[in-house]
Structure to design on (228 residues):
């Protein structure tokens, strides 16, 4: 499975944009990039995913580098509720098949200051 | 955490007792995953099930743990003769039948063994 590297922690001020980086230099051409987040005492929450093009949804934007070796999750205006651990995950090639589970690393712990 | 229901949310068991954790997947989802998160640690895959079948149990401890997803009713994660080291948050996730569908998580069941 392709490996991802994320900073252990980041800080942001409330109502400012946050850019959470993820490196995945061994990504293959068919690997999707998924982002999940986990708020304290809650289950992981799907945020966004993409393959090649930048993606936007109501929660965030995902910017994918042209060579796909890195990506950035963008929270346009951080709120206190966005304080969580953010995981960048490349599901295995047979995702959805016989071993379709997600493999979580340590993620980035985002702190948001009021 | 749209629609994956787990219960109980919190469970206290004495050493040696049995713990049963239930998971009702999102409507229309026939694939269920169980993850465990030990205190201050990351999420670890345990088992992946489809209706009436265990597809991948490579993350399940060899003894005392079992899982099922019957044709009718919720998926059950069963822990026999619990020990203090079983104290953790157990998360269930589900997805639809199309390969690559997004996986959605429940709020978790927190097991405390006293």
């Amino acid at each position: 499975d392709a490996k991802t590297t994320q900073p252990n922690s980041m800080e942001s001020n409330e109502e400012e944009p946050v850019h959470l980086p993820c490196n995945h230099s061994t990504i293959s051409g068919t690997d999707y990039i998924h982002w999940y987040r986990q708020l304290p005492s809650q289950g992981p929450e799907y945020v966004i995913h993409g393959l090649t093009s930048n993606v936007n949804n109501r929660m965030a934007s995902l910017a994918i580098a042209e060579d796909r070796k890195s990506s950035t999750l963008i929270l346009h205006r951080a709120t206190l509720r966005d304080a969580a651990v953010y995981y960048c995950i490349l599901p295995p090639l047979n995702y959805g098949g016989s071993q379709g589970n997600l493999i979580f690393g340590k993620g980035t712990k985002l702190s948001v200051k009021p | 955490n749209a629609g994956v229901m787990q219960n109980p949310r919190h469970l206290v068991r004495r050493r040696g007792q049995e713990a049963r954790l239930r998971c009702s997947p999102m409507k229309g989802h026939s694939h269920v995953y169980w993850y465990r998160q030990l205190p201050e640690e990351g999420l670890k895959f345990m088992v992946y099930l489809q209706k009436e079948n265990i597809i991948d149990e490579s993350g399940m401890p060899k003894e005392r743990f079992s899982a099922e997803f019957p044709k009718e009713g919720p998926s059950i994660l069963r822990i026999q003769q619990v020990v203090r080291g079983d104290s953790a948050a157990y998360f269930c996730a589900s997805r639809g039948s199309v390969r690559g569908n997004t996986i959605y998580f429940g709020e978790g069941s927190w097991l405390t063994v006293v």
